[in-house]
Automatic annotation (TrEMBL):
Signal sequence interval, chain numbering: none
Sequence ranges assigned to domain OmpR/PhoB-type in this UniProt record: 151-244
The Response regulatory domain, residue ranges: 31-144
Protein name in UniProt: Response regulator
Length: 247
């Protein structure tokens, strides 16, 4: 991805090959999938957003589907006129599959009917080209605020995780602050309580392809240090699953 100095194919460029592989701090940034077939606009948009997001860039709907299958994203920017179809079809497929990742349509199709179709197809916002980058950034921030505010609290034993606020409350109701990555890790584990997540699964779904699987172990240690060791169970030789800590 040019925004991060990565090299990749002409159709899909992965942020996983970018400097965040060497910079664990970048793992804490929101993951963004940019779906834009114009090479100049895609490169420029990625560069502008790269300071505040981990950006993957797909130039076709097909490559976007591949990246969506392999990675977790906090938001999508979707062009409509792609070489292999309308970006709205991709959004419809995601919504039909129950995937609620916020999507902003970024397109030259600016008629009122086009905008209505985009919003009715499941897009959360619609911005027409040409556009100002400051407006794009503001709309992305608003999308993420609204999406995170809808995240449900989760009971983990007698601890209450509030992923939208990056907080977990201990059994006495005292809040413990978490980083975004720590909250995502707990939320992912809690989403399937009976499932044993491999380190590769967690690396992909929580950290979007970070430096190595040791990153998962480090963050498990961080979470246990802030809460209790029993909150995440180690399944020897397989990975981790959510625990059931009781006071």
């Amino acid at each position: 991805m040019p925004a991060n100095g990565a090299a990749g194919s002409a159709s899909a460029i992965r942020a996983a090959d970018a400097p965040e592989r060497l910079d664990p701090e970048r793992l804490l940034l929101p993951a963004l999938l940019l779906i834009e077939d114009d090479p100049n606009l895609g490169s420029m948009t990625g560069e502008m957003l790269g300071d505040h997001y981990r950006v993957d860039w797909a130039q076709t709907a097909s490559d976007a589907r591949s990246l969506l299958h392999a990675n977790r994203y906090d938001a999508l920017i979707v062009d409509r006129r792609l070489p292999d179809g309308d970006g709205l079809d991709l959004i419809r497929i995601l919504r039909g599959g129950g995937i609620t990742t916020p999507a902003l349509v970024l397109t030259a199709l600016a008629d009122v009917d086009d905008i209505v179709e985009g919003l009715d197809s499941g897009a959360n916002d619609y911005l027409t080209k040409p556009f100002h980058f400051v407006e794009l950034e503001a709309r992305l921030r608003a999308l993420l605020r609204g999406f995170h505010a809808q995240a449900a609290s989760v009971m983990i034993g007698d601890w209450l995780l509030k992923p939208d606020a990056d907080v977990i409350e201990d059994p006495d109701g005292r809040p413990v602050s978490l980083t975004d990555a720590e909250a995502r890790l707990l939320a992912e584990l809690a989403s399937s309580p009976d499932h044993v997540f491999s380190r590769d699964e967690l690396l992909c779904s929580v950290f979007s392809g970070g430096s190595d699987t040791g990153t998962v172990d480090v963050y498990v240690s961080y979470v246990r240090g802030k809460t209790t060791k029993a909150i995440i169970e180690t399944v020897r030789g397989r990975g981790y699953r959510i625990g059931n800590p009781q006071d």
